[in-house]
Write a structure and sequence with these properties.
mainly beta, 9% helix, globular
Length: 183
């Protein structure tokens, strides 16, 4: 193989690896749980209004300076959670959660805000294991961001939402940035 062919082959492999999606799995034996996390050291920076696919068809998120917008598989009409209406105190660490369940498949997202340091990763405890999610933020230092994840959990009377536990956003040092419920 010539030197040029080697460089071309290396470029093709690198492009394939960069474009490959990654998903983290964590579940007790015999149970399924999946998340939408890569090993990125911090939040994905997005432009205002930039739509991000949330890991399942129909689940999309986008941010504006006013807050978080999203659609879910069961409802294509945009929903909204404000960061400027006074309902959250961005001077204190906090996490919110919005969830939709369909036969044990749960689409999760929420705001995180007010923590010290730089948000780096999020985990959601479920009865089927720990799910790792993704973080989104607008450029600059808005003081808030959005987390999202999907999970397959056992179906209960409330469609699986009783299987959800603590949501923790960590900073780049591995310390708790914000948590729901607050400990």
């Amino acid at each position: 193989m010539t030197r040029m062919q080697k460089y071309l082959a290396a470029a093709v492999v690198a492009a394939a690896l960069v474009g490959a999606p990654t998903v983290s799995y964590a579940a007790a034996p015999g149970r399924a749980a999946y998340g939408t996390n890569t090993h990125a050291p911090s939040a994905q920076i997005v432009a205002p209004g930039e739509h991000v696919a949330g890991g399942v068809p129909g689940f999309e998120l986008w941010l504006t300076e006013e807050g978080k917008y999203w659609t879910t598989p069961g409802d294509s009409d945009p929903q909204f959670r404000s960061v400027i209406d006074g309902n959250i105190d961005r001077s204190q660490p906090g996490v919110s959660m919005q969830a939709e369940s369909d036969n044990g498949h749960v689409v999760l997202s929420g705001l995180y805000y007010g923590g010290k340091g730089t948000a780096s990763r999020v985990t959601v405890e479920t009865s089927a294991g720990t799910v790792r999610g993704k973080l989104l933020e607008l450029a600059g230092k808005p003081g808030w961001g959005v987390w999202y994840a999907t999970a397959d959990v056992p179906v209960g009377d409330d469609g699986g939402l009783d299987a959800l536990g603590t949501i923790t956003v960590y900073d780049t040092r591995g310390k708790v940035y914000a948590q729901l419920p607050q400990n």
